[in-house]
What does this fold into?
Amino acid sequence: MDDVFIIGAGPAGMATAIQLMRYGINPRVFEKSRPGGLLLNANWVENYPGFPYGISGTDLADIFIEQTKTITITQEPVIELSWKDGFYNIVTPIMNYQAKFAVIASGTKPKLLTGFSVSDKVKNNIVYDLEEIKDQSRKKMIVVGSGDIAFDYALNLAKENSVIILNHSDQPKCLKRLYKQAEEHQNITYFPQTRIETVEKSFEGDMIVECSSPFGLKQFRSDYIVGAIGRDPQIDYILSSVMSHTAEFEKKGILHFVGDVKNGLFRQAAIAIGDGIRAGMLIHQSIEENEHESRRIHK
Ligand SMILES: Cc1cc2nc3c(=O)[nH]c(=O)nc-3n(C[C@H](O)[C@H](O)[C@H](O)COP(=O)(O)OP(=O)(O)OC[C@H]3O[C@@H](n4cnc5c(N)ncnc54)[C@H](O)[C@@H]3O)c2cc1C
It folds into this structure.
């Protein structure tokens, strides 16, 4: 039996773990892929205090990982989180686990690209996570989206590839600074009001991407399409025995949502970390109070 489960080893989960370790509480952190979370996709982080000249997302994630190296990370995906008889139960493909406190730090999942037809032969070339294509070079990439993540992805990919950004609407939603950088980048071309209609495999092995635009149909060639049209909370694994009691469990201090999973549009590393530190402090407070109470009863 563990005291605390943390689901997700992104910035929020790692910060919770760091704070708990300060109190001598060793949480069980579950991570389905690599610790670091979405930061591993971030090209350049300019607003994380302590790095006046900015830092790449992967370098920042590495620093967090270094700081959490004494924490054991259970590298298993959580398939189910439920609650019964006063304990949380976690099911992974390997084992079942039990604990008294749960910290949901599982971040977000990408909204999937829809509204166009895709040949089965190229379905795997539509991706949402840069980790999957980070080693590609001299490829033709299409990024779909218009927010900070879409432009950050484009700038990252454009170091080694040629990139087209397709935006459905006429205005980008990203920071002006990111738009300007993309506009000035020789490997990036931006097309507003352009919507994918069909994706087919070409004879040469890449994709033929046909799009509608105010100027009629456009055809692009591409090796990969990267979806960056928004994100939703990643909470599919939480069963109704937890979901239908979240307010009650949060009030009791036994359930904490931290980071992007609950922050809506305010999805930033520093906010996720603040949430994690706070959750760690609250859990410590609850454990102390419970111990104090049980000492009082057994006197
Ligand atoms: C391209 C890009 C650029 C960005 N730039 C900036 C920036 O400049 N400044 C800034 O502050 N922020 C930036 N961000 C946002 C920042 O990365 C996030 O706010 C931060 O990573 C959120 O941390 P988190 O721990 O809440 O979630 P995440 O980082 O998403 O971590 C969640 C973790 O949970 C794991 N997980 C999910 N489900 C399960 C499960 N069922 N079982 C086990 N593990 C699970 C995931 O694998 C992941 O590792 C950027 C993000 C992107 C994508």
Summary: The first strand starts at residue 2 and ends at 7. Residues 2-110+231-297 form a domain with the FAD/NAD(P)-binding domain fold (CATH 3.50.50.60).
